[in-house]
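FW: tagging you since you asked about this chain on Friday. Here's the raw sequence from the shared folder, copied in full. Didn't touch anything.
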Amino acid sequence: MARQKGAPGGTRVLGGVSPAATTPPSATRGLRVAVIVGGAFCLLVVIGLLVGGGGGGGGGGATATVTAEASAGNPVVKEPVGGNASISAHRTVDGVPVGYPRSQAGAVKAAVNYQLARSSTGYLADPAARAKTLRAMATSSTYGELRRSDDEAAEGALTSLGLSRQQAEQSLVSRSAVLGTRVVTYVPEAASVELWMAGIVGVTSEDSPLPVTGSWTTVTISLQWQNGDWKLSAIQSQTGPTPVQSGSEDPTDIAEFQRTHRDFDAPPYTD
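HL: got it, structure written out here
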């Protein structure tokens, strides 16, 4: 594999920047272990397991807000939570698609979209948006527990990163994609769906303890049929499967990452 060149504060792959090509394989493995047990990886795990690497970064809230970065008379629309609900065929509640068929396919769509709604910068940064998002998709009996768990994880992650809510909204990047789905169990009253996910998460600042970093997770979404819809009842996450990054591209410059994160819409929810 070609050597990867590091740039302070740029994008890194899970496990850190690869050592020089002259480094012996045994030393390379040792360096990777040292990076994995470092503080940046611990932060990555906290955030990655919270959002599970779900899809869509800066999109999908109940009400879109227009940022100041308007160019050529075309304002850049940034939505606070989840995927891009404006081009979804689903009925939405606080930006979350709801109203799924009582079938395996309906359960899979609900699982994917609910995880997309949890996998954005807005969900991590804004407690009020997080509460509304969970209220729209969680069962009545598990809403309180899920909210406490996600609030604790999000607040702990931002504190560890040294970010206020306002700073997180400006510099935190969280974007993910679902690579595959698997129905673990299904009956008309309940379902369990696994999501294999890839994502990026980190902070676009020079002195960040977590530069924008690749993450891979497997998320298990448990659903119950309640009030004529699939509702979220439990979430479990684990890291991996994690690939080795190929190619020899340098990590992207921070300014370019900021521009791309600002200008690119979040992907739509699945229909």
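FW: DSSP finds eight helices and eight strands in the chain.
HL: agreed, and The mean pLDDT is 73.
FW: great, closing this out.
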